[in-house]
Write a structure and sequence with these properties.
The complex is a heterodimer. By secondary structure, chain A is an alpha/beta fold. Helices cover about 40% and strands about 25% of the residues of chain A. In chain B, about 80% of the residues lie in helices and about 0% in strands. The chains are: A alpha/beta, B mainly alpha.
Amino acid sequence: MNRLFFNDVSLAYPARDRQGVPQLVLDRIKLSIATGEFVVVIGRSGSGKTSLLNLAAGFQEPTGGTVTLDDKPVEGPGAERAVVFQDDALYPWLDARDNVAFPLKLKGVGERERRARADELLDLVGLSAAGNRRIWELSGGMRQRVGIARALAAEPRFLLLDEPLGALDALTRGKMQTFLLGVWAKSRSGALLITHSIDEALMLATRIVVLSPNPGRLAADIASSFAADILAGASPSEVRASPAFKRMQDGLTGLIHADSPEEELAA
Amino acid sequence: MTLITDLTEVYNSDAKTSEPVRAPVRRRQVPIPLISLATVIGLLLIWAAAASAELVSPVFLPSPAVVAASLWNLVSVGFVDSTLPQHVLASLGRVLGGLAVAVLIGVPAGLAIGASRIGRGILDPIVEFLRPLPPLAYLPLIIIWSGIGEASKVIVIALSMLPSIVISTASGVRSVPKDHVNAARAFGATKRQVTFHVVLPSALPSILTGIRIALGTGWSTLVAAELVAATRGLGFMIQSAAQFLVTDVVIAGIAVIAVIAILLEIAARALERWLAPWASAK
């Protein structure tokens, strides 16, 4: 088992001018994610959700505390922490298969093996026929599947997902949630997913982490079992209709909007 | 209940609008290419009329028929020791040679400007010095340094093409989506791999646009350079013809230069569609 650990991590951006004070984005976050867990981070805008993911990915360095992977400090991005981006970040000059094979190409895996592995992964995400398609010919949902397949190609121990379903329409989004859950369960990796949607958090998470804004602080860390129910075969609509789900939803809504001023709620 | 009544209302209102409506009449419009074609034919007719009325001496304004005949003559017999295809090949060779040099120098330079602050600091003043200079201003200096052979012409053309290639490469590099670079880094790409597998392909559409613009500048520089010092080439052909007052060859030469410029533009656009289809697909 591997562990990604945020040890009292703070992040501040430098002041805009000389007299200004540095802007604190994340304030002493203590959070641990193990392989086999699906941790969903939820919070309003300004709660530093994406910064948290950038720190885990190694795109940014914390200004306080440390991010460690199995007790070794994270120094920059690495293949054991694959990232899935909100607007897919697929390469339009490569077809779907070559996009999936991209991490393997970076590792120097041979052409043949690369293709075979990419086709396997495309099969896993239900796009076995789309290998030769151009990226811009694919729908938003299909692109995210390619993005997820590409992340899996790196054989990561952790999947870092930055609002991967945020740009999709509601119907596709619901389908992709179930799909994502299945893929994660098969990959046996740890997942850290950022989202705005309470519903999505409840559907996917084994643990839900709530961040409160300005600066981002850990407000709650709650275990959730709905994802396990869905993996065990319960239908997503049944799960959503259950009283327990509704209760959790109300509770989370209260937590997230606890200290929000009126005008922000209206907006 | 209200939902159902609302729905029927929607259907009813739909039915109301589906009463026979007067079909919108589409006004017939003359297509723009047709207007352009008519303009060209009109200009040719005015030219022919002016020539046949001998408003000016045929020495200064030969008729379109005479120009067409001399064009054929240029192809079959030639002028000043070379046929038209030979002149064209000489000119094209110089432009493509210049382009090759400009791409080999300009793309790495643009990469350096777009990707590194130090590179930008070093190269920016050089590019900004070169960019507004008319190539003919430094042609004499290049001739002093490297003689009147092919080298001087290729150098001048390459210099005239450099700024647009450098600037478009740099802007392409600067506009590489951050996520594209971050994705590669997250998969463990080295700096070199990011440059070759992400930054360059991502900047390719912009580089190709730069090449297209450069071909335009290069072509006009070339003809001017050949006016000064050459023994073959379209510019040289026109210049020699002008010295002997062979106006029909001058006009035929100008027409050929224009047609080749248009063909180069078309070829460059085809290259863009072929190498970077995603740029136009979005």
